[in-house]
């Protein structure tokens, strides 16, 4: 089975949708210089292939009362695939966790937390994060100000140069 072929038009569709996710198909087609039916077909194909993973509203954290962002570097005692999976599941089940990464270096996981205030973070840290089995160390870094968050992904390298 061959991998899907993507081209510069697919890249243009993705770039546009990253910045304007609610664009009506007619406007998207005009922006990427396609007919509406072609734009819709390509968008549906990108969705079916999993390139477009979903659509969602991006909320202003301050306006919804989540003014404190904390990055927590976690070290764990045991390193195995099973342990990693159980830690990932436990961390992702914590509502305040908005991102979780397995990393290399001094830490094993880097977790992004969004909470209303320091007292809320203390509760999340002590009652939820440190309660995750083999976590042996947690180092917190507090965001003073977010300059850019969830910016559009760079697509200059994509698609691999096979088609158009």
Automatic annotation (TrEMBL):
Residues 6-67 form the HTH asnC-type domain. Transmembrane segments: none annotated. InterPro entries: ArsR-like_HTH, AsnC-type_HTH_dom, Dimeric_a/b-barrel, Tscrpt_reg_AsnC-like, Tscrpt_reg_AsnC/Lrp_C, WH-like_DNA-bd_sf, WH_DNA-bd_sf. Signal peptide: none annotated. The keyword Lipid biosynthesis does not apply. It holds the Pfam family AsnC_trans_reg. PROSITE patterns: HTH_ASNC_2. GO terms for molecular function: sequence-specific DNA binding. SUPFAM superfamilies: Dimeric alpha+beta barrel, Winged helix' DNA-binding domain. One of its GO terms (cellular component) is cytosol. CDD domains: HTH_ARSR. One of its GO terms (biological process) is response to amino acid. Keywords: DNA-binding, Transcription, Transcription regulation. This is AsnC family transcriptional regulator. It comes from Kitasatospora cineracea.
